[in-house]
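Q: Predict the bound structure with guanosine-5'-monophosphate.
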Amino acid sequence: MGDLHPDLARVLISKDAIEKRVKEMAKQIRGDFKDTQRLYIVGILKGAFIFLADLTRELSELSMPHVVDFMALSSYGKSTESGAVRILMDLREPIENQHVLIVEDIVDTGHTLSYLYHILEGRKPASLHTCALVRKQRERLNVPLDYIGFDIPDVWVVGYGLDFADQFRTLPYVAELKREAYTR
Ligand code: 5GP
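A: Predicted complex:
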């Protein structure tokens, strides 16, 4: 691994820790869905794409039948935390009677996941579950979160799919961005 970028404060979750936890999560999901014929996995772009790729390959190793589709969402105004979210790209297929698992990168206030959960719930899936790589430790909406990789402090994190202004997304670890990097 090269030197840490000067805008990064520290590595919060190492590549090895992520790899181990993703394997554990896949096992847990496999066990919970052992009687499910097919899982319909909904990845949330862009942030979840690396986590989703690793998780689904682990699920394949465990012979969990699944398909993958994507949605892209955008907040109207992050700073206001109004909770207003819009769909930039929707699923290609109806999910009625499907066993759906939402895969998110990060849950902060929970607005995004809560919005998405209610939209998808309205489409009458057979079941609806949620999974996120990281969750910030702070006040949030009461969203059902079934699978969670790591709890992290309330700092801005990047890497493993997570970005800051589209930078740092493909780092193999999750790192804390220095406060001065996003306040300047
Ligand atoms: P929420 O709606 O839960 O407050 O926020 C969720 C969205 O905000 C995430 O899907 C992500 O796009 C963004 N977000 C929140 N915290 C972070 C963070 O620490 N790093 C990055 N890269 N995105 C974040």
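A: The CA atoms of residues 99 and 127 lie 5 Å apart.
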